[in-house]
Amino acid sequence: MDDAPAAAAPTIAITASTLRSSLDEPTVKAEYAGHADNHITFLHPGYDDRSKQSVLLRLQAFDREGGGLHSGTALAACRIVAGNSKNGFFTHQRGGPKIELQHDELLRHKKYYFYNPDVEDKVYPVYKSFRDWSFPHDDFPSEWSAMNTADTEKDNAPPSASGLTAFVSARDKSCRVSERRGADYFESAHLVPRSEADWFETNGMGEYNLSQTLLGDWMLDDVRNAIALRKDIHSAFDDRKFVIVPKQSKWVVQFMGHTNSLGDDFHNTHIHLKGVSSRFLYARFAWTVFPFLSSFLNAHISRELLVRLPNGQEVAKKYTFEEIKAEFSSRSRSVSPRKRQMTIPEEGQFTTKRVCLERNAHGAVGTNQQDNSANTPLTYTSTSLPSVCSPESPAQPSFDRQEWIRSRRPSDPSLYCCDYNKAEAEAREGIPGKPEWGGAYLCGQCLGVEYLEDRNKDMEVVS
């Protein structure tokens, strides 16, 4: 292996991408080369090129016909996985000179080496996963921080977590990506996913919330961590098909994965954002990028990885391939980015059987204990939220049931169900939820009509 790169090479002038506005009609096309074979490989100079051992990331290059990738986006991705490198740079050859690039120039070659001069050892460590990644509070990239107020209006008073959907609907008024083509039906999409509540809290991300009173998993239900998206676009967002990045001093949709039509319609679309945090957009970008480390982690060799210990300390550790494989194989099921995780504290937890509300023939409300999975107990904590079928459900027929449910349901009602195990299994198998509940996995005893009534009330507030 050669030594570190020599003197800098002259600037290579490459025209930036042509952007389009989200207000444009779908017939207005930007340059988009959505062929699956259009990608650029970024190599780690600390490993041998034989058998693809040096592959760090392989990213889709959709910014120009024949393959091209926004250099600022590519550099941000490599710097994130390489220990939040502040001064990382690209070269054309191993040990070659640094390529001087402007943020909005395009990368056109099929491969680049990424060097991290912040670390003396050429075998610089790489974060093992998003959950091991530390958010760079003190070294937030200037290209992203400069965007913090560019498209942001003055914040209004923060709503409660349960009012997130109505607030985002009133603020954004339409899908932020499709704009006029998404003004009828859209939903609230989290930037930092609900499934990353532990990462959010461990990294102190609540600092960037508008509301400083949200606790536990509810911290992610802040208006600065959500935008309005059309349902199909929201699904693509959660499938890591695209991110929102700064290009030419605008927030722009950057597709990271191949699609049948969404990339054609929205890649390199300039969108209008207000009331959201650039820190959360950057975290979302990182969350999308980390799965692209699969080639690096699956190369059947040992790797130097950065990991977060249970005490929060970050350390570099050498992992054998067998250790890497065993660790990732232990994650037997994927977690939906929309799914809130119930946390279990070391003390103070209690268990209970599921209890549902049921109407009798006279319309009165009573309780019914379900025989669900042999009465498998659920675990609740002071910070987790019970579903409609909750041990706290009052049995008296005189209480305000609508107000009780409204105060306890999450902003996304599809996250809770009487038969939670069945809901999870159906979601993993691709079985859709009930269309009358907007695809939610609600059983008949949950009486999802409360969701429909709440939605109608929210729509009345918005209108």
Mass-distribution shape: globular
Strand content: 15-25%
Mean pLDDT: 75
Cα separation of the termini:
64 Å
Structural class: alpha+beta
Rg, nearest Å: 24 Å
- Name the helicity range: 10-25%
Oligomer: single chain
The total count of strands amounts to 19
Q: Which runs of at least 5 residues are low in confidence (pLDDT < 50)?
A: 7-13, 149-153, 340-418, 446-455
Number of helix segments?
12
The biggest beta sheet is recorded as: 4 strands, mixed
Strand order of the largest sheet: 1-13-12-11
Structure overview:
The strands form seven sheets. The protein has a four-stranded mixed β-sheet with strand order 1-13-12-11. A four-stranded mixed β-sheet has the order 3-2-7-5. It has a three-stranded mixed β-sheet with strand order 8-14-15. The termini are far apart. The protein is built from twelve helices and 19 strands. Mean pLDDT is 75; it is low at 7-13, 149-153, 340-418 and 446-455. Strand 14 (303-308) and strand 15 (314-319) form a beta hairpin. With 463 residues, the protein is of the alpha+beta class.
